[in-house]
Design brief:
With 242 residues, this protein is of the alpha+beta class. Helices cover 39% and strands 26% of the residues. It is built from 6 helices and 11 strands. The strands form 3 sheets. A 6-stranded antiparallel beta sheet has the order 6-11-7-8-9-10, with helices on one face. A 3-stranded antiparallel beta sheet has the order 1-4-3, sandwiched between helices. A two-stranded antiparallel sheet has the order 2-5. Helix 2 crosses helix 3. The radius of gyration is 22 Å and the shape is globular.
């Protein structure tokens, strides 16, 4: 009886542990998505076979992004740095203060590194003046629209990288759900469609539901416009039931 009981417990654990791991992965993935949507954060990610290599590349990309952001702020008069500050030192401090998240993706390690922009300024030993207006509190941000997502739209929100778009659309096409799709240059004007917006790194920056009189960001549930995304590419998709 004891042996049977132990076997039963072992089988139960073998069934439950993968579910716990999947739930944890979903939680981390959701947090990563929220960070990507936060305009007050800087982040970088890399996906590789080995975790150490993935984080090495992610931190290299992160340092590059931090440097570009600091330079942009200085060049546009949004940030003032006095007393001979070394930008290299500031980038190094930001990298040391960054946070890390990791998930698995098809047998590969996805390394994600991020930091809040204000933490870059606060962690510096040098005098820095932030010339921008204070960031609005959360309760001053626009309220989400009352948008009801379809099952297909919920699936769209699972797309986080450019290379995931084509397989996703092909899957919908195989199910007979797709009317047409293409690059931004061929996007139909005045007709309903959905648009994936991606940056030069291949990260999905927005998923838009486009209608003749409105555009809604399905990630933030707020009104948006594809013109808000400079230096980005886009893939549009028309569903047969739109």
């Amino acid at each position: 009886m004891v042996t049977v009981k132990k076997i039963g417990i072992a089988l139960l654990l073998a069934w439950c542990l993968p579910l716990v791991a999947d739930a944890q992965t979903s939680i981390v993935a959701a947090r990563i998505k929220s960070i990507k949507l936060d305009p007050n954060s800087l982040y970088a990610e890399a996906t590789m076979k080995e975790k150490e290599d993935a984080f090495k590349n992610a931190h290299a990309l992160f340092a590059k992004k931090v440097r570009e952001w600091i330079q942009f702020e200085i060049d546009n008069g949004l940030l003032t740095i006095d007393n001979g500050l070394s930008i290299d030192s500031l980038v190094a401090k930001a990298d040391a203060s960054s946070q890390e998240l990791t998930t698995s993706r098809g047998g590969f390690c996805r390394a994600f590194v991020f930091i809040r922009k204000r933490d870059i300024l606060n962690n510096s030993q040098y005098p820095i003046t932030n010339n921008q207006n204070p960031v609005a509190d959360d309760d001053e941000c626009p309220l989400p629209l009352l948008v009801s997502l379809t099952e297909v739209e919920k699936g769209m929100l699972g797309i986080t990288q450019f290379y995931d778009i084509e397989p996703y659309i092909k899957g919908l096409k195989a199910d007979g759900r797709v009317k047409s799709y293409g690059k931004y240059a061929t996007m139909p004007q005045g007709e309903p469609c959905h648009v994936f917006v991606y940056d030069r790194q291949g990260d999905i920056k927005a998923v838009l539901r486009v209608r003749p009189d409105s555009q809604v960001n399905l990630q933030t549930m707020q009104e948006d416009n594809i013109r808000n995304y400079k230096n980005c590419g886009a893939i549009w998709l028309q569903l047969k039931d739109e």
